[in-house]
Amino acid sequence: MTNGTGPQPRPGILDISPYVGGEAKIPGVERPIRLASNESALGPSAKAMAGYRALAGELHRYPEGSAEELREAIGRRHGLDPARIVCGAGSDELITLLLRSYAGPGDEVLYSRHGFLMYPINAQTVGASPVAAPERELTADVDALLERVTERTRLVFVANPNNPTGTYLSAAEMARLHAGLPPSVVLAIDAAYSEFVNRNDYEPGVALVDRAENVVMLRTFSKIYALAALRLGWAYCPPAVADVLNRMRSPFNVNAPALAAGVTAVEDVAAFERARAHNEHWLPWFSERLSALSLSLTPSVANFVLARFPDDPARNADAAFAFLQKHGILTRKMGAYGLPEYLRISIGTGEEMERVAATLGDFMTAR
Ligand SMILES: Cc1ncc(COP(=O)(O)O)c(C=O)c1O
What spatial distance separates the first Cα and last Cα of the chain, rounded to whole Å? Predict the structure, then answer.
């Protein structure tokens, strides 16, 4: 708190509600089941861990600042030009860099009502105004977004699929959004969960980046590659945007163990396919179990579900959260997203999902 005599932060900074991450601990529980942060169910691949360990003797060395080897590995895997890739300390850093680069006081940053919270938070950090467009059935609504574009709009952020709703926009809808934006507005497609999507009409954003000068796609190693602790993400950009981000980032923004693990992770296609297959099995399995308990779910295509609980205080989301926690299971409350009737539950191991489904069954049928 400031009393007017000490250093004063820039206007607006004290209005920011800091991001609160998923809980990781339950007092008295040694190994809680952690389903609050959409982390990987299976953990990193053995090859990625070996890449990380190989760096242990080199911690006195600065990382290679341009992340060249990793950008080349990503380029090979996805058929992309490494010169148009910029790596970051998590995709969070890339969101921050985009905002610092393209928005400032007086500007507007558009996102959908239940979009990822780091968009409005980061907009506020640069003094810009976050503008939330309403959604339709907890899905980004292209018309509502376009209606809110003004001459002050600098960026539009769409997570596709979105966290925390799990819903997505088809490639055609995303292209329609892009077509309606002025060329001066950056469309940031945050594809953090794209690797889990199994829908014919979906595209993570590469096609749009390839044909437009104002589209950026963000990806992360925190989800399917299971490297959340290392903080590693990347952006695929038009050349001019890559140039801007490279000027704005700090020279060693990605640490060396993250770079080493990232290269080995991206090359381990077998581990990637295992993680995908795991989600393809357990997402529908868990969704069906919750539906059978009369909980309504959004049609999630990511590695989590968003479940709506009844209004009855004995059966509502707060009561379910507390019951699950008492049984050693951590999920995510959704009040900060304006969805207090919901819990978000990540897809964990098979054993974990069976435990959660059984515990929720006990909760819903308890007298
Ligand atoms: C939609 C979305 N974007 C970005 C991130 C941040 O990921 P990272 O760990 O790469 O910073 C998350 C993390 O949960 C997310 O859900």
Answer: 46
